[in-house]
Amino acid sequence: MKKVVLMILFFVIIFTSCSVKSSQISSPDENIAVSFQLSPKDGAFSYVVKFKEKTIIDTSYIGFNFKNMPSLNKGFKAVVKKPVEVNNTWQMPWGEQLNVVNNYNEVTVQLEEIADLKRKVNVIFRVYNDGVGFRYDFPEQENVKEVFITDEKTEFNLTEDYKTFWIPGDWDIYEHLYSTTKLSEIDALNYKVNGALAQTSIPENAVNTPVTLVGKEGIHLSFHEAALVDYAGMTLKVDTEKLSFTSNLVGSKNTDYKVKRTAPFKTPWRTIQITDNAPDLIASNLIVNLNEPNKLGDISWFTPMKYSGVWWEMHLGKSTWDYGMEMVDGKWKDTGKAHGKHGATTENVKRFIDFSAKNNIGGVLVEGWNTGWERWIGFEDREGVFDFVTPYPDYDLDEVTSYAKSKGVQIIMHHETSAATKTYEKQQDTAYAFMQKYGMHTVKSGYVGKILPKGEFHHGQFMVNQYNNAAIKAAKFQVAVNAHEPIKATGLRRTYPNIISREGLRGQEFNAWSSDGGNPPEHLPIVAFTRMLAGPIDFTPGIFNIKFNEYKDGNQVNTTLAQQLALYVVIYSPVQMAADLVEHYEANPKPLQFIKDVGVNWSETKVLNGSVGDFVTIARKERETDNWFLGSITDENSREIEIDFSFLENNIKYEAIIYKDGKNAHWNNNPLDIAIETLTVTKETKMKLNLAAGGGLAISIKKTN
Predict the structure, then answer these.
(1) 576 with 568: CB under 8 angstroms?
(2) Which helix (H) or strand (E) holds 146?
(3) What per-residue string of b and e applies to 202-230 under the rule 16 or more CB within 10 Å gives b?
(4) So which residues are the catalytic ones?
(5) Contact between 606 and 644 (Cβ < 8 Å)
(6) Contact yes or no for 123/176 (Cβ under 8 A)
(7) Which residues contact 51 (CB under 8 A, 6 or more apart)?
(8) Distance from C-alpha of 263 to C-alpha of 142, rounded to nearest angstrom
(9) What phi, psi does 435 have (nearest 5°)?
């Protein structure tokens, strides 16, 4: 017997502020243990985390500072409630897998001040085989009503100088390249920010989450948060001498507090993913498991899909978002000054519809379809510039939607808010009803620019509520949301499964116009083990015209063609864009076949191998067909990898179409060199394959009968 589950001899101990006794709770497999105690000196509450008997988070304290009352960080007495073991399985309506095991041990520690206010806060710990989550619960109580939090002080005191993969704790944007340094060398204040970013706010030496750490003996940690609702986003302030993180909430210039709540309320979960290898970080379901179950019920109206669309051509400069209208007496007018480069025309969109219909691509995104793009960014008076029902004169929405329907293709709506929140709030009902009228079930929303009202940041409580409320309202109109310039993903897709994907990282578009050389080859092998741990990513892969010199001199995608195919499997999203232009796909029908074939909705996911920042290989099984697809990508270093096909079924032969880097492939010198071959494989097959520098590997695997 497992020491009676986690030591369900977990002492139901009553602490007092002068007690030195402590308690412990373990994961179901007993590899992770969390112990906690009250300081005998001052009644401060602390916790320790061990993995396989090694201390990885040493004595770390908790606390809160408030605007309207004294700090809450010591002078406690405590009661430890009886632990609870939970082991159930729930199903993803769409996702990386169908069945998700939710197995953890939970304990609640009830803390109460000994002093006159006798304030109460509960600390709830859940310990899984893949990590730890804990949150604060402020129950209803006499002396805590409306709460103004100025700081949350949750410590994570580490025990070694980990190799750390981080982006700065920017309050406004996550679109930064990852740095790889020792924990002791993190310097966010001197991080070189890309000058093309519309806004950036890095107030101190902090990092954004997920932040991933790799230890000398192979321990892998990733810090993040789950169920971020009505609260400020959390960055982690770095103490490079003590090797520690402390939670630091995103604030506002408009208030002298960071979070306003009314008791009773719960904070988001503070999460620590813990594994002894890199692949298990990706396989972890800690973040989604810590969220509440589906509140929407049946969402079969949303269909996971691949999509093409009017997007990449604007980044290349082939066309524009704006039409060339002018604002006259507060209204957009076609005054005869159209420049003729507008991308979202009826004719152009129908061309993408035809391409999608022929190539098993379910949707077409249309950016730049609505009036207002002439004054969408850089202006102080952005409120009221956009509406989300008025197309430009050269875009016949009725004709386009009718044509798409006749071809079995969905139109994906685009709402660029330009961060003018009042305008979007006022227009959401109308905009979503407009989508429902035309049978559009997916919207890509954008929040480029400095937030209006001034003084708010993209990641503060004000905007957390904006993003969440927009998605909750969208569900009432059967609309799924793919948010760009968003708050980070924290697993809310489980509770509101119409939250399907989001950006929240430095994306593909930087390759088209960034002055710093675009995304380096190591970028996505880092992203897979950092940002992707938070949730689905709308990265827009599939660029075939990699150097695009006819459009941009000096820019390119730092990849091989085979890697662009592999990204459809490696970087997960239920909506995956075939991002390049129609003519570039039509000129390359053989590699296009993989995009035609590859799935987007999976029943199983297997992370076969990988190393953070170096390479990763993932295989996924499509729900609808039981076909498997495999993707592998590497950084700037070429490497040989072994593929073990033991994830396949017994006694079945499969046809494997392999799309691999050619012998002379190289992300810069020869990115289009690709070799395609067809082999028969079985569960017993093992195969060694080469990845070129900046390269990749994609395989479609189908039963032969």
Answers:
(1) yes
(2) strand 146-152
(3) bbebbbbbbbbbbbeeebbbbbbbbbbbb
(4) 509
(5) no
(6) no
(7) 31, 32, 219, 274, 276
(8) 10
(9) -65, -45
In 3D space, the residue among 192, 86, 210, 308 whose CA is nearest the CA of residue 530 turns out to be 210
> Can you give the pLDDT at residue 22?
64
Nearest to 577 by CA among 300, 359, 364, 355: 364
CA distance 89 to 99: 6
Quote helix, strand, coil % in the chain, to nearest 5: 15, 35, 50
- pLDDT, averaged across the chain: 96
Name the nearest CA neighbour of 362 among 351, 353, 370.
353
**Residue among 111, 148, 105 at smallest CA distance from 128:** 105
Residue 140's pLDDT is what?
Answer: 97
Q: State which amino acid sits at residue 609.
A: N
pLDDT of residue 10: 40
Q: Which two tokens stand for residue 686?
A: 């093992």
Dihedral sign (CA 242, 214, 558, 317): negative
Confidence (pLDDT) at 5: 39
How far is 669 from 31, CA to CA, in rounded Å?
47
Residue partners of 306: CB distance under 8 A and separation at least 6: 360, 361, 362, 363, 575, 576, 577, 578, 595, 598, 600
Match 């002379």 to its residue by tokens: 664
Would you state the structure tokens that stand for residue 677, as one six-digit string?
A: 């071959």
* 483: exposed, middle or buried (Cβ count in 10 Å: 0-12, 13-18, 19+): buried
Q: Place 19 in a pLDDT band, splitting at 50, 70 and 90.
A: very low
How many Cβ atoms are within 10 Å of 566's Cβ, its own excluded? 34
Judged by DSSP in three states, 148 sits in strand
DSSP SS3 for 555:
coil
The torsion angles phi and psi of 330, rounded to 5 degrees, stand at 80, 5
Beta-strand relationship, 410-416 and 363-366: parallel
